[in-house]
Sequence to fold (65 residues):
Amino acid sequence: MESDRRTKSVQFTEVGKAYSEKIIPKIKNAERKAMSDLSEEQRVALLETTKLFMKHFQKYIYAEE
Fold:
């Protein structure tokens, strides 16, 4: 799908790969803990707002220049 502008391919250096393997579990853990601090109502509101933001964000990212 080379014509699909939403698809990107990246390659890490060995240093980048080692760093990502170290940091990603910490990020996932922090995200899980932070989400668990929110009430169900707050999580729903966050997800709905994020969806709306992404809709507007994509409109500008994919707009013809």
